[in-house]
Specification:
By secondary structure, the chain is an alpha+beta fold. It is about 20% helix and about 40% strand. Keywords: Hydrolase, Protease, Serine protease.
């Protein structure tokens, strides 16, 4: 008994000693192993090639100066074919040269180069594929030697308070390392009208040039890809202790599809829902205040075929608990197309299990888009989710309003649906583009906003 007690105290002593050692020596042992696999990504593009609005343009505008580099020169017009340059970070995930980075760093690039270690060691990179939904891109370089690489950890296992280490090319300084903690494991943010959910929030300092770099745990595994930050002064790229990373479980699934197919097919089962609140849980007598309340089941979707009904509460997807709409969307989306997902559902006091077949999300096919410089409006065609949420059959949706533009002063907002211009029906982007070509100096709009129709006008300057 005495010997057993002594053994327990010795074990506790060595555990404490190990923790103290880590605190004294920091994380140099992790960084030394990871650093050779982190790269700087540089891109060269052509402004003249970007005539149409890209769905990620708002992200580039808000985060290019933080992560991807400044546009040079800033006074280019669309008619001038001058190069623009940007930079970010990335990391190797295989010895044969596959590199993960952020899509918004490389989108629109005509040439991509990466530096491993010093700036002198630059190599041309090939774009294998990219995914606008998750903002992940996969690159490939060719080398005669086997390359160092990082492995993915399980982002579902991280908790608030865990150590997080970020590596990237801060302000072009290769191999800059910062550390902090995980502040939140499921943060939702919106950028330019686009929703990004279930992100890892961290207070590790993230600056200009970090986008696409790895976020590591104390085992040196990648638990996220550095994505965005909040800054008190947009465009300067200063950290205020609020940064975001895309979870590794999402990234690894996306990367696998990009490597195999060059594109990503996101799973979709056809439900609209809302987060379950404490009051809602009490009213519905749920076992706990989590899950997603099914508000609408879309006709012909996998959920309808499986038997889900409005009023059901989804508690789990593939045996993983659901605490938000964004988590449900992520788990279904990353399951792929043509897969059966197991849904644990609460209905009228009972827990039930359904199996829904995923199909291709109609938004994956993309939609036509157009930017009109005179009005400052960027619009795109409606996709099915727009129609479901707004009951609009036709029109174009506003995805960006340029600050200070005539449309901005007129009060047009992102997510407004434009259905008529100068009393002419607008069914799609093509109709909008033709209407903007007119010589009229006054544009009247029939606008659908939050289910209500509005009449607005834009007075063009002479």
């Amino acid at each position: 008994m005495f010997l057993r007690g002594v053994a327990s105290y010795l074990l506790l002593f060595f555990i404490i000693l190990s923790d103290c050692s880590a605190a004294v020596h920091g994380y140099s042992h992790i960084v030394e192993k990871a650093l050779p696999a982190v790269v700087t990504v540089r891109v060269r593009g052509d402004i003249a090639q970007r005539k149409a609005y890209d769905p990620m343009e708002e992200i580039r505008k808000e985060f290019r100066d933080i992560f991807g580099g400044q546009i040079v020169p800033r006074d280019n017009t669309q008619q001038e074919r001058r190069p623009q340059f940007a930079q970010g970070s990335g990391f190797l995930i295989s010895e044969n040269g596959l590199i993960v980075t952020s899509r918004h760093t490389i989108v629109g690039a005509s040439e991509i180069t990466v530096s491993i270690g010093s700036d002198e060691n630059r190599m041309k990179a090939e774009l294998v594929g990219q995914d606008s939904v998750t903002d992940i891109a996969l690159l490939k370089i060719t080398s005669k030697n086997k390359l160092p690489f990082l492995t993915f950890g399980d982002s579902d296992k991280i908790k608030a308070g865990d150590i997080l280490i970020a590596i990237g090319s801060t302000f072009g300084l290769n191999g800059t390392v910062t550390a902090g903690i995980v502040s939140n494991t499921s943060r939702n943010i919106e950028i330019g009208g686009y929703h990004f959910g279930d992100l890892i929030q961290t207070d590790a300092s993230i600056y200009f040039g970090n986008s696409g770099g790895p976020a590591l745990n104390v085992d040196g595994e990648v638990i996220g890809v550095n994505f965005a930050l909040m800054s008190s002064a947009p465009g300067i790229g200063g950290s205020i202790g609020v940064g975001f990373a895309i979870p590794s479980n999402v990234v690894s699934t996306v990367v696998k599809q990009l490597a195999e197919n060059g594109e990503v097919s996101h799973g979709y089962i056809g439900i609209l829902g809302r987060d379950v609140t404490q009051k809602l849980a009490e009213a519905m007598k749920l076992p706990k205040s989590s899950g997603v309340l099914v508000v609408k089941v879309l006709k012909g979707g996998g959920a309808q075929v499986a038997g889900l009904l409005p009023g059901d509460v989804v508690l789990e997807v593939n045996d993983k608990s659901i605490d938000s709409v964004s988590r449900l969307r992520k788990l279904v989306s990353t399951s792929g197309v043509g897969q059966k997902v197991k849904l644990k559902v609460f209905r009228k006091g009972k827990e039930m299990v359904f199996h829904a077949l995923t199909h291709k999300n109609v938004e994956d096919t993309g939609s036509s888009s157009f930017f009109n410089k005179e009005t400052g409006l960027s619009v795109r065609d409606l996709v099915q989710s727009d129609r479901n949420s707004s009951d609009a059959a036709v029109g174009v949706i506003v995805c960006n309003v340029e600050k200070g533009s005539v449309a901005d002063y007129a009060g047009i907002l992102v997510k407004d649906i434009l259905q008529e211009i100068n009393e002419k029906p607008i069914k799609n982007v093509k109709d909008f583009e033709e209407a903007c070509r007119s010589n009229d100096r006054l544009f009247t709009f029939s606008v659908l906003r939050d289910g209500s129709k509005l009449f607005m006008y834009v007075d063009m300057p002479d």
